[in-house]
Amino acid sequence: MMKFIRPHLGLVLLILISSIAIRPLFHEGFFPIHDNTQVARVYELYKSLSSGLVPVRWVADLGYGYGYPIFSFYAPLAYYIGASFIFLGLSALVATKIMIGLAVISAGITMYYLMREITDEWSGLIAGVLYVYAPYHALNLYVRGAVGELWAYAFIPLAFFGFLRIARSPSWLSITLAVLGFSGVILSHNLTALMVSPFLLLLIVYLIYKNSSRYARLAIFSAFFLSLAVSSWYWLPAIGEIQYVNVGSVIGGGSDYIDHYVCFSQLWTSQWGFAGSGPGCVDGISFQLGKIHILLAMFGIALSFLLQKKRGTAVFIGVVLFLSVFLMLPISRPIWDSLGFMKYLQFPWRFLQLSMFFLSLLGGLGFYLFIKYLIPAELKKPYLLLMTMGLTIIVVSFYAKLFKPQEYIEQYRDETNVAVLNWTISKISDEYLPPSFNKPRSEGDIPNLSFKPNEVITIFQVEDSPGRLMLKTTSGANSRLTPNRAVFPGWEISLDNKPASFVTDDGLYSIYIPAGEHVLRMEFIQTPLEKLANSISVVGITVLFIGIIRKKSLFNI
């Protein structure tokens, strides 16, 4: 009955094969990556969560020690997963490695189930191997360190799988799978969600067109909007409150999409590297799709037309594959120029994420068609075993060399150290501070107190945590006090339990303190928009929960 959750030999083999790709994570220490902030972000989310901030939006130690609302804008799901392992007693570094390794293994598993839904178990294994060992997967893992993209990569097949199951068997279980997949993409990496959504909508339109059941259509629509509802606690504030931070600073300059198109020849062959990308056809990193992936995909499309089998599936995947490749090439610039939101993607080559997904599907489809229709029945079993083993060995042998870091750092820096967090990590990513904030010019400018010293005001008691600050003050004259907290609407400021009078200056609060003894409190709370977004998510999750418990659709599906 529940075909998709029964254990299968193909799935077990896939997990074992995928584990080869993450062997470097078991090495002592860590390795250099472009986004060298992952351990710090896992630790900071854990620290904020421990202090009672739910959901976590604000972290205290980044932003040069002034804090900022990174998890209101940077998709947080991967870091919740990583932080959960710190709660189990593991170090932040080990927790980060587990978080990364789970993303890689999960990508193979979800692709296995998607391909198995379309064809069968063994083509699911092949598609899973192709997906895990895609060159861009290695690039995100050991070069870029793009943890959000790694997790989004794992959720993409689950999203497509869920919607396919709804079309074939509309039920709350199918709806839940689709919601977990699509909301998982959104909560893992907002830019991937931006890229995936149009392609997922194409699938939805295709499924609705092909399906005459009004219940299936209703279920498909329900899954799509429930996905938006469940994830609204993140994406709604990220859109509505973006003006309060300096995210716009990452657009343009060295990240201008105009300078990062992929030359067509680079999709077939480009030298592997650990640097970055730039204008022209010679980059410090590789944008290859993978020769084996390309050849198998072409084989899959050709067989579907020659055999007149699964042709609709092959055409759909082929079309969306073409679109994903097209959007990486310079010829697509008119689209990038006309659609303003595209500039936030920064790098056209990000569409490799989707191209590898579609190529892996076509590769699995070609394998399925060859075995099912071109191998005589009496030879199917030996050929299936031989070809599965042979193709897997070829893929892993060909691409395994990409799945290793440039070097290992045995004595990796302690990213739970406040000084490292305040300066070294903060310099890497400071776009979540207010636009008017004056950044420190040197490590010596980092504040070592919770407030700026004031000759008039004496602080005789301090209670400081990521989401709260309490200062007991005394002064002989009226003055102003500046806590070292970056401005953001989430802060509620009170003096003696009454709303405090303040102004903002250079991205900080300047609070009026009358003469005498007073108690100043700052508490990071949910803004009205965040409360609304949280409520929508709660409603969405509740609807899913009720549907699953009843085991029948609320719409009589």
Description:
There is one protein chain. The chain is an alpha+beta fold and 557 residues long. Among the domains are: 3-247 and 380-402, no CATH class; 457-525, Immunoglobulin-like (Sandwich), CATH 2.60.40. It contains 19 helices and eight strands. The protein has helices at residues 9-19, 38-50, 77-87, 92-118, 121-132, 135-144, 147-168, 172-188, 190-210, 214-230, 232-240, 264-268, 291-307, 311-326, 333-338, 352-374, 380-399, 418-428, 528-550, and strands spanning 457-465, 468-475, 479-481, 491-495, 498-499, 502-505, 508-513, 516-524. The strands form two sheets. Strands 1-2-8-4-5 form a five-stranded antiparallel beta sheet, with no helix packed on it. Strands 3-7-6 form a three-stranded antiparallel beta sheet, with no helix packed on it. A hairpin with a 2-residue loop joins strand 4 and strand 5 (498-499). Helix 3 crosses helix 4, helix 5 (121-132) packs parallel to helix 17 and helix 13 (291-307) packs antiparallel against helix 14. It is elongated and about 95 Å long.
Summarize the structure.
The chain has helices at residues 9-19, 38-50, 77-87, 92-118, 121-132, 135-144, 147-168, 172-188, 190-210, 214-230, 232-240, 264-268, 291-307, 311-326, 333-338, 352-374, 380-399, 418-428, 528-550; strands at residues 457-465, 468-475, 479-481, 491-495, 498-499, 502-505, 508-513, 516-524.
